[in-house]
Amino acid sequence: MSAQRIIDIKNLTVSFNTYTGTLQAVRGIDLHLKQGEVLAIVGESGCGKTVTAKAVMRLLPTPQAVIGNDSEITFAGKNLLSFTESEMAKIRGKEISMIFQDPMTSLNPTMKIGEQIAESLIIHQNQSRQQANSQALAMLELVKIPNARRRLKQYPFEFSGGMRQRVMIAIALACNPKVLIADEPTTALDVTIQVQIMNLIKDLQQKLNQGIILITHDLGVVASVADRVVVMYAGKIVEEGTVDEIFYQPKHPYTFALLKSIPKLNTNNQEKLYSLAGTPPELINPPLGCPFAARCEFGMKVCRVKYPVIVNFTDSHQGYCWLYHEKADRTGLPVQFLQGVESSAQ
Amino acid sequence: MPNKEVLLQVKNLKKYFKVGRKEILKAVDDVSFDIYRGETLGLVGESGCGKTTCGKTVLGLYDATGGEVLFDGTNIHQLNTREKKEFTKRAQIIFQDPYSSLNQRMTVGDIIGEGIDIHRLYRGQERQDKIYELLDTVGLNPGHIFRFPHEFSGGQRQRIGIARALAVEPDFIVCDEPISALDVSVQAQIVNLLTELQETKGLAYLFIAHDLSMIKYISDRVGVMYLGTLVEFTRSDQLYKKPLHPYTKALLSAIPIPDPIVERRKETIPIEGEIASPINPEPGCRFASRCELAQEICRNKPPLREVADQHLVACHMVR
Q1: Less CB within 10 Å around the terminal CB: N or C of chain A?
Q2: So what's the ipTM on this one?
Q3: Which residues numbered 161-180 in A keep a CB inside 8 Å of some CB on B?
Q4: Is B218 helix (H, G, I), strand (E, B) or coil?
């Protein structure tokens, strides 16, 4: 491994106490982020992507959310989970920042935009109000908001969705954090604005050499910006690898199904879309074996009773699936699945 | 297309909203198109371009400011109460948000049965059987009939919305972003369901979405809207093979394609800035302020003209 791991998550479990029982939202995942890379976490809603991100930020509600005792989130050599709230406050916004999903509700409606950006500079970098204001102006210009000087004095309701998301990015990047967590940063935006925002995040990342954790369910966005991809399903990681490995050599049937179910621009109208029947399992009583077994076309008996062991396909590519066990019967599997999918690029 | 019988004709449709003393929001401004029986017409554009308003005005949920909507030859904005009721039996809508478009206090059976009761289509056991049949058609369990909407996932709720629209056996359904609130794998389920229903029941859809790859997949013809006007209108394969309007080109190049190698080689056509305000818009081409090709002539409104077979475009710069 060339670059250093800045975030290293070991055996993270998060559960929520609800009226109906304990909901196991994240069930023991190992994950790492290297300096200067974009790591995408993909999966359906409710698979634990956002909970994982919030666990890193220590933003999960207590006492409802319970993080497992032997879980570890190492950042710069220290376990974030052992931090006190005041120690954590020094990390948030300064070392690790987060861009939230909904730009419409995650800004403070009663504060001017300029103040919201300057706030973290004053707190974390002990800047004077004047210094912070001038840097806030620079940040707004960095995220390409026109008329930045006038905009500083405006309130969030005067901004459109795309502009608010830019403001969120400006706030997140103000203190030059080492890690940026972007939770569906473009889901609420239109495609043309999405391109602008993703290009902006990517440009800034290359300039500042940050690590980015990008949470999304848009595989197109993943293909365009990610270096590595983690696929989550029902609170577990089912496969992880470089972006090329995941898109062209998907090994887990879930990844394979996910990729097949999106229409590409060259998909013929007459072809039926591949659709995955059923829904993900309840996480209050998660299945004993592979959580995907019930929806899996290639499921075997063992899948339902025993959780698969990790399979290393390459140094960077791992997956959890019984199909790759030496005793598994792989006859009858589709060729595309066994040999990989080709790029549609000419 | 099997038969090209026009089902719905939209002529110079306008829908303005008064938002201030002298401010008029032109949500739909002079839009014309027609929909054939059994076809899917896609309508794409960014948020705020008026596609939903257009869909709702076509159904008469909004009164039109100008122009007319002819459904089987009759103008639906000039119907009396009884005719209007007859029209609502033939045209239905599926809403965008499956979470807020179902009455939380009604059971699934009552939600689906409401249309049947209003139009007095079936009674007693027949009504019950029809509801079971509809649940089965959209892939829900008959046991779900006594449940309430909150007990269902987003995809299941959207199925309830589809069953409700189908209950009165319509010819035409406006699908207002029916899949944008759903997960990728569920989107495919709903789209497959909609296309199956179209094949078996010969439905015509006005399919509104901002997801271009899905629009391309489901539609026979596609209209691209920008700030209340139709900028390009053609067959869906044609639109993706040979887009002509600079906005369509930029929009198409902006879609991220789930293929890393394609993405690395792709050159996007950047559109600077954001969509302008539809309040008191300037005359002339609405896209001119963001358009690279804009010239003096773009201050005049470009007409929607046919430049190739069945390919209409509203741009002065397209030869």
Answers
A1: C
A2: 0.77
A3: 161-163
A4: helix
